[in-house]
Amino acid sequence: MKPSESVFVTVRGLRYHCRCWGDARAPKLFMLHGWMDVSASFQFVVDALRGDWRVIAPDWRGFGLSEWAKSDSYWFPDYFADLDHLIGHFQPKAPAVLIGHSMGGNVAAMYAGIRPERVAKFVDLEGFGMAGARAEQAPKRYARWLEELADKKPSFRDYDSFEALAERLRGNNSRLSSEKALFLAQHWGVAKVDGRVALASDPAHKLVNPVLYRLEEAEACWRNVAAPVLWVAGAESKAAEFLKLSPEDLAARKACFRQLTERVISGAGHMLHHDRPERLAEVIEGFLR
Fold first, then answer.
1. pLDDT for 208-220, tens place per residue?
2. For labeling, which of 67, 77, 158, 272 is most exposed (least CB within 10 Å)?
3. CB-based contacts of 180: which residues, under 8 Å, 6+ apart?
4. Strand partners for 189
5. Cα-Cα-Cα-Cα dihedral of 75, 81, 87, 88, to 10°?
6. Arithmetic mean of pLDDT over the chain
7. How far is CA 121 from the centre of its chain?
């Protein structure tokens, strides 16, 4: 495996962890993980990259080794602001290349329209946006959020060992080898004082987001993206089905981007950076060339 180093940066009052690979003088790639994931998740893709790159992968606030938020909720605008700060820190003088998976792809896609001058190219890995919500859903959503805040603090289950967590990961994705699953478990989890393994994630991520997903706002951001976009999906992914997005919905979302190239990775599901990292690396580097 290619070695990485941990770089800690203060981002808007939080201690942010960034996992970095490669020579600091090489062209930079920012890799942004999804919900309930961590930066080390990109190790397999980084290993497969043929070019000389400086890969910078932050743990989003409340995940991995980054500090938890000082409030009881997580908001998409915070991710936009965190990303803006990180790009300003690591690459202040040139537009950045962003590669985002799932939630990370959704964050990067909107950011690329919010700050089009700051993004040179964007690779969207299964970041299809969310199911649109209607305004009349707001009262119940806010009420649910208030009820969850009033209940006892949410929590994630813990595990007997990293091996047990690895088995959980393989249960979610049968394409994972035992070796890969254990590697991921050792970064996705953290050893507790009693020897058990907890998830390296703030349980507040389990709270419902009180702010409805406004598809019209997302689409307005996507239309404002100036950078070339590579849209990558796993051939066996169920993400669109889970989000209840029809082929017509996906086509309408793709049409928002001015310069879009689409690739489908065979033999891969939603976690395509785990399932087919060599093929994904090939597709990414082909696009960047």
1. 999 899 999 999 9
2. 77
3. 44, 274
4. 199
5. -160
6. 96
7. 17
Q: What is the pTM of this model?
A: 0.96
Please give the C-alpha separations between residue 162 and each of 59, 67, 191, in angstroms, as whole numbers. 20, 22, 8
- CA dihedral (42, 46, 49, 52) positive or negative: positive
- Average pLDDT in the 222-246 region? 96
Q: DSSP string covering the chain, please?
A: ---EEEEEEEETTEEEEEEEES-TTSPEEEEE--TT--GGGGHHHHHH--S--EEEEEPPTTBTTSPPPSSS---HHHHHHHHHHHHHHH-TTSPEEEEEETHHHHHHHHHHHHSGGGEEEEEEES--------GGGHHHHHHHHHHHHHSSPP----BSSHHHHHHHHHHH-TT--HHHHHHHHHHHEEE-TTS-EEESB-GGGGSPPSS---HHHHHHHHHT--S-EEEEEETT--HHHHTT--HHHHHHHHTTSSSEEEEEETT--S-HHHHSHHHHHHHHHHHH-
CA distances from 22 to 14, 91, 116, 121, 285 (A): 25, 15, 26, 20, 15
For position 72, what pLDDT does the model report?
83
> Model confidence over 49-102: pLDDT tens digits?
999 999 999 999 999 999 999 888 898 999 999 999 999 999 999 999 999 999
pLDDT value of residue 202: 95
Alpha-carbon span 46 to 141, nearest angstrom: 39
CA–CA dist 240, 252 (Å, integer)? 13
Q: Say if CB 204 and CB 257 are below 8 A apart.
A: no
CB within 8 Å of 108: residues ≥ 6 apart = 32, 83, 98, 99, 100, 119, 122, 124, 127
